[in-house]
Amino acid sequence: MKYVIIGGVAGGASAAARLKRIQEDAEIVIFEKGEYISYANCGLPYYIGNTIEDRKKLFVQTPVSFGNRYDADVRTLNEVLSIDRANKTVKVKNLRNGKEYEESYDCLLLSPGALPIVPPLPGIDLPHIYTLRNVPDCDMIKQRAIEQLRDGAAAVIIGGGFIGLEMAENLQRIGYQVTVIEKAPHVLTPLDYPMAAIIQKHLQDKGVKVVTETALTGFTEKDGLLEVQTDKGGAYPCDMAILSIGVRPNTQLARDCGLEIGESGGVKVDAYMRTSDEAIYAVGDVIEFPHPVTGKPYCNFLAGPANAQARIAAMNMVYPESVRYSGSVTTAIAKIFELTAASTGLNERHLKQQGLSYQTVITHPAPFATYYPGGEPMHIKLNFNPETGRIYGAQAVGKLNVDKQIDTISLLLKHEGTIFDMINTEHAYAPPYGSAKSPVMFAGMVAENIMSGMMNPIQVEELDELLDKGEEIQLVDVREIQEYKTGTIADAENCPVDELRELMEDLDPEKKTVVFCEVGMRGYVAYRILKQSGFTQIYNLIGGMKTYRLIGKHNRG
Amino acid sequence: MKYVIIGGVAGGASAAARLKRIQEDAEIVIFEKGEYISYANCGLPYYIGNTIEDRKKLFVQTPVSFGNRYDADVRTLNEVLSIDRANKTVKVKNLRNGKEYEESYDCLLLSPGALPIVPPLPGIDLPHIYTLRNVPDCDMIKQRAIEQLRDGAAAVIIGGGFIGLEMAENLQRIGYQVTVIEKAPHVLTPLDYPMAAIIQKHLQDKGVKVVTETALTGFTEKDGLLEVQTDKGGAYPCDMAILSIGVRPNTQLARDCGLEIGESGGVKVDAYMRTSDEAIYAVGDVIEFPHPVTGKPYCNFLAGPANAQARIAAMNMVYPESVRYSGSVTTAIAKIFELTAASTGLNERHLKQQGLSYQTVITHPAPFATYYPGGEPMHIKLNFNPETGRIYGAQAVGKLNVDKQIDTISLLLKHEGTIFDMINTEHAYAPPYGSAKSPVMFAGMVAENIMSGMMNPIQVEELDELLDKGEEIQLVDVREIQEYKTGTIADAENCPVDELRELMEDLDPEKKTVVFCEVGMRGYVAYRILKQSGFTQIYNLIGGMKTYRLIGKHNRG
Known about the structure:
The structure is a homodimer of 557-residue chains. Chain A has 557 residues and is an alpha/beta fold. Chain A has 17 helices and 33 strands. In chain A, the strands form nine sheets. Chain A has a five-stranded parallel β-sheet, covered by helices on one side. The first copy, chain A, has a five-stranded parallel β-sheet with strand order 9-16-10-11-12. Chain A is globular, with a radius of gyration of 27 Å. In chain A, 55% of the residues are buried. Chains A and B meet through α1, α3, α8, β22 and β23 of A and α1, α3, α8, β22 and β23 of B.
């Protein structure tokens, strides 16, 4: 069998290695239009920021070493121009000498990845506007960053997604004043606002300027500097701009040869990673696949799933229909200065788009035993189905052990897990690693309290809506007096939870009452006391003052 | 309803808090024979080692604060002497004044924990022999450790389990020369030897003396020092000895009142945490419960499950048979100097005891992207059913991200997961947190290669058995020549994998052949090349040289 692979980075290289291990006499040709194969795409921002010092480390394999180990014909700087499905051939251009030729295949794998979105705006072709998808992009940015670095150099990142923010950190690290411009109401749109707000504040604390709800309109040049222009009128002079708006599946070859393209714009594949042509498989950023939670196809642009798909495709290319792919719930993470931000599954925006009703829990658990030194609370947001308890998605932000919580929830999500499964997880516990109740268990327990009617939640946004309307609410801050004095919500009274059984005499049990504490735990205890003492309309504020302080509008004192 | 709770530490205090939140008018009496409730049991070694400096941090709640918040009657220094099930009363002794009295209950919770095993050996009552279960134990050790610390002070830990090794680290930290004496062939018996050997070497590198296959026979006093005596004849003079041999469920009260005791010696409970008496529930170290993998009851002595059980018991005490407990797969972890050791499920000893046939995979994956700085390989051992792929257990040792892998496998274990589920996990990946293929996925892939016949494994112990017998084996070291020169196995020849397609001419395809590399990956590639080139009896060494170097007997050079 002769296998032709288009694209030699994540998916293509993995598939080739696996193919050869399955079938030693397989003939494998890899076409890669770039100069490199199998390189560390996700490491590029860290090479720019000098965290990775040695450029060689970015290359997992060279074309020669890979070719030797897997007895594969690796042709870099060879671009596939078209696919002739009827004759099972590809037309290729050797970019070294400009010559075109044909190559036949028995079975083809499409792994051309994604292309960065570059909007056709005025000035888009000016120098020092970069995208970051591959090694040449990276080399250009690095060259500019090092060779032309001046005192007070400025960089503008357009798009505050995971990679945009990784770039913000890394460019600041090497001396740039960084501004992030984001069209949406907040950065990191995979996260909901209460979580993204923590990152946004951290960026500002670190000296990165964050501008939201602001769209790029074009570029000009002024006094030798690039100037980024926006719909809000402000112009941002800078030494370089990074376009990090997003990517789209590189479907040109697939479209040209008539392969079926799906509703979200990726190449359509079945569970065996096979396209609408039996002899052509596709993996990685170029495909779309149904989301395990919604059942709707989407493109996810993540390295982990691309690798998993490549392994599955290789097996099916040799033994058709032998292994099925189960889809990705979109689990992603990034380091942003001292914080980690991670998410899995659906956020509120997705849930609203899908018309799914959901409930939300926000907690601020310690990353390990509170008495063990060095920990600061993390922040978790859980979205779930309040009827069935099914997990829809989760997000977490914090300094330590954030990844572990999201990995656990991601695994449950893949298996259609519920908040009850979260409560029933079992984790490796010792004081340096966790608490007897893990953050995952704890978030599940709060969700269960809501589902079982043990607690009636109110979100910060909901409370603010009532306060904006001037609705009469009995606000009860159940923290200690010293905490109350540092700031509270609107005209809240202070009734510390441990004295509540006496102090509640002064409260009106008929009035709409919202209790809150710092994080929600004492609020829950207070809720239970009042609820069982005849208070009729009572709510516990989800996320407590810790969340209110960040995103609430009626902070006092 | 009047609830009486016996034991106010982990399980008892959690259950009381939950009870009150469910039922504000519940009358709750907690009897605790010690002075403290709800304290940080697992933090005690770290308080001794000064990692936790402030003793107050050990106390999550005081009897007064807890009583106020949950409107509970907390009676510390009150010991329950007996339970009268017919009349639903307990006889209690107030240890402050010696007076005895009776207290009635509607529903009782037993949470008396476990007792350290103290063998009746000669000299066991000498001073400076300690166990570590509670705050007074801890205070005594701390007092001895600080007040009588002299230059060259020595401590002997008897028992090299998780807590014994935590104590070894913490006592060394404050100035002791520490010796660990372990009866078994290696420390950390929840781990199999290839993993425990890494910890043992680390302890020795850190200056802790480790003596295995040696049993305690008694104590004497000599020149003002304590002397620990063993069956191997050596005597170990020391300033203090810590007995860390194990614990047993504290079932005295349960036995005396005729509650059913199970086959492994714990109080028998049903899935609702109810004992053989409908009005008595039990949680924590005192109970036994069926293991989800074997179905056999056992006692697990872990804080996480105790907390989970308490929450479930409280619910069922108010609403009988409302929540079921699903059991614990025994997931445990400890920090041992710079390393983390963790395990979940069954080890080889358990598997042999249960007569289960299993296969084993050992891998040495990086904790995150290899090109991201600061990582050192971890070590994972996976035991699984080679017929069905069901996971039996896993162990991991390393510096970073060990807990995360074990948490994921623990969750799969609880859901009867397989190695295929391991491959299909989805984790939060960015270079500082992981690799596109996680260690969990990678171990699953190696296991799948074995199950599917893609690779025929040989364990270090199996290879050594063949070499000991003098069996003729073609040993092929497929690493680079520079690696080969640093040391190999017996009379292995060197055939670097990337040249193997040429060099294999010199090998005999009919001979029993074992290939190996540093960790097993190149070995696998070499295996596939040789296998598909007509070699008939070929094996890949599991764990490669990294494991062989630690536990193999025929190291050369």
